[in-house]
From TrEMBL:
<dbReference type="Pfam" id="PF05175">
    <property type="entry name" value="MTS"/>
</dbReference>
<dbReference type="InterPro" id="IPR002052">
    <property type="entry name" value="DNA_methylase_N6_adenine_CS"/>
</dbReference>
<keyword id="KW-0949">S-adenosyl-L-methionine</keyword>
<dbReference type="InterPro" id="IPR050320">
    <property type="entry name" value="N5-glutamine_MTase"/>
</dbReference>
<dbReference type="GO" id="GO:0102559">
    <property type="term" value="F:peptide chain release factor N(5)-glutamine methyltransferase activity"/>
</dbReference>
<feature type="binding site">
    <location>
        <position position="142"/>
    </location>
    <ligand>
        <name>S-adenosyl-L-methionine</name>
    </ligand>
</feature>
<feature type="binding site">
    <location>
        <begin position="185"/>
        <end position="188"/>
    </location>
    <ligand>
        <name>substrate</name>
    </ligand>
</feature>
<feature type="binding site">
    <location>
        <position position="185"/>
    </location>
    <ligand>
        <name>S-adenosyl-L-methionine</name>
    </ligand>
</feature>
<keyword id="KW-0808">Transferase</keyword>
<comment type="similarity">
    <text>Belongs to the protein N5-glutamine methyltransferase family. PrmC subfamily.</text>
</comment>
<dbReference type="InterPro" id="IPR004556">
    <property type="entry name" value="HemK-like"/>
</dbReference>
<feature type="domain" description="Methyltransferase small">
    <location>
        <begin position="99"/>
        <end position="194"/>
    </location>
</feature>
<feature type="binding site">
    <location>
        <begin position="119"/>
        <end position="123"/>
    </location>
    <ligand>
        <name>S-adenosyl-L-methionine</name>
    </ligand>
</feature>
<keyword id="KW-0489">Methyltransferase</keyword>
<dbReference type="InterPro" id="IPR040758">
    <property type="entry name" value="PrmC_N"/>
</dbReference>
<feature type="binding site">
    <location>
        <position position="171"/>
    </location>
    <ligand>
        <name>S-adenosyl-L-methionine</name>
    </ligand>
</feature>
<dbReference type="Pfam" id="PF17827">
    <property type="entry name" value="PrmC_N"/>
</dbReference>
Length: 279
């Protein structure tokens, strides 16, 4: 089958399944199925039989709204590439806002020596931060052992295994000591809103990493109580926020003696990263 016909059929199938960027995702999955770059895709007309079979299986999975990252098994984030699995959230570009804020508040790349990531998932935040601070070591904590194991694989993939450790545990309750930087992308979706998530998320990504309780703030209460005991003097914490949560989390933080240094918006204009320190 010709490439153009294969892509047209796949794009129509994905469009009918409700995929907004159907044509783009069809090309992306064909590149993955054949092991091609986008440039190589443009240079080929015929498709190897094994590539066709792999592509059609991928289109079948995507038409059932399985995320592309779970089909390919990987996702880019910041400047690194990460293995992903249904045990963790897929790294998203909005979360890169936390790293941008951190780099602005800790511009001296030699000054940060220790970084803690609570709810580490794939390890994308922690490992990306370590790639920017060459003298730092890191600890990532996740309640799911499979997530911690995946993060260890990602450390190896990105050449950072000797500067990081991952453990399964109940967040800050499992951690002793203080850190120059604390990062966290906690569960923050209100429980009632879980039923309205896109099917790509609701059916495939782990609910424990999404559900923030009745008001979406359960994890922030724990974090704000813990941060005064986890931060070094002159340290800072950067927390990811859900839409419309900046004021509520600011109030929780200030009640625990923390100062809000910045609330940074992502590219979509959502207040996404809250930077905290001792007041």
């Amino acid at each position: 089958m010709r490439k153009i016909d294969l892509l047209q059929q796949a794009g129509e199938r994905l469009f009918q399944a409700g995929i907004e960027e159907a044509a783009f995702e069809a090309r992306l999955l064909l590149c993955w199925a054949c092991g091609w770059t986008r440039m190589e895709l443009m240079q080929h007309d015929g498709i190897p039989a094994e590539g066709v079979d792999r592509f059609q299986r991928a289109i079948q999975r995507r038409s059932q709204r399985e995320p592309v990252a779970f089909i390919t098994g990987e996702q880019g984030f910041w400047t690194l590439d990460f293995h992903v699995s249904p045990e963790t959230l897929i790294p998203r570009g909005d979360s890169e806002t936390l790293l941008e804020a951190l780099l602005d508040h800790k511009p001296d790349r030699q000054s940060v020596r220790s970084i803690l990531d609570l709810g580490t998932g794939t390890g994308c935040l922690l490992l990306s931060a370590l790639s920017e601070y060459p003298r730092a070591w890191g600890l990532g904590v996740d309640i799911a052992p499979a997530a911690a194991a995946l993060a260890r694989r990602n450390a190896g993939r990105n050449g950072l295994s000797d500067r990081v450790a991952f453990m399964a545990g109940d967040w800050a309750a499992a951690v002793g000591g203080r850190f120059d930087v604390v990062l966290s992308n906690p569960p923050y979706i209100e429980h009632a809103d879980m039923a309205h998530l896109m099917p790509d998320v609701a059916a495939y990504e782990p609910h424990r990493a999404l559900d923030g309780g009745d008001d979406g703030l359960v994890a922030y209460r724990i974090l704000c109580r813990s941060l005064p005991h986890l931060l070094m003097p002159n340290g800072c914490a950067v927390l990811e926020l859900g839409m419309g949560q900046a004021d509520a989390v600011t109030e929780l933080a200030e009640a625990e003696g923390l100062a809000v240094l910045e609330c940074r918006k992502d590219l979509g204009g959502v207040e996404r990263a809250l930077v905290l320190a001792f007041s």
